[in-house]
Design a protein that fits this description.
Blueprint: E1 2-9, H1 13-21, H2 23-29, E2 36-43, E3 50-57, E4 63-74, E5 78-83, E6 86-95, E7 98-106, H3 113-133
Antiparallel strand pairs: 1-7, 2-3, 3-4, 4-5, 5-6, 6-7
Helix pairs in contact: 1-2, 1-3, 2-3
């Protein structure tokens, strides 16, 4: 099953792309709630390149690596990747006064679909806020 989340970012597509693909930016926006943070991020933005973000609870109780391999890159338009046996697609679609960022990914079986959708949407909302505040 595929899940799609999206948001509109009020910024130029080049700024949105940069914030989505730059490790220092990722560490600032990649969280679903205030009690989590991303402590490390690496990006090798090319087909066959790998990415990784270390996400941890601020109280140290839990953490995990979100990592994968890029399978298609179209600058300022599209990122496709695999993570484990799942796939993800990030689309950057120019709209009036900004960019729609749409993320579609394969759901996993451990957590309910709505929980996954809510978590990924929260991260995307944080992304939009980050870009708009730092432009």
């Amino acid at each position: 099953m595929k899940i799609t989340v999206e948001t509109i970012v009020n910024a130029l597509v080049a700024k949105v792309w940069s914030a989505y693909t730059t490790p220092e930016d990722i560490k600032q926006w990649n969280t679903a709630s205030e009690d989590w943070h991303t402590t490390r991020s690496s990006v090798d933005l090319r087909v066959g390149g790998v990415f990784s973000s270390r996400m941890e609870a601020k109280d140290g109780s839990f953490g995990f690596d979100f990592a994968g391999t890029y399978t298609k890159i179209v600058q300022n338009e599209l990122i496709e990747y695999t993570f484990g046996d799942r796939t993800g697609i990030v689309e950057f679609v120019p709209v009036l006064n900004g960019v729609t960022v749409r993320v579609t990914f394969d759901a996993e079986s451990e957590y309910p679909v709505e929980q996954q959708r809510h978590g990924w949407q929260a991260i995307l909302n944080n992304f939009a806020k980050h870009v708009e505040v730092h432009q």
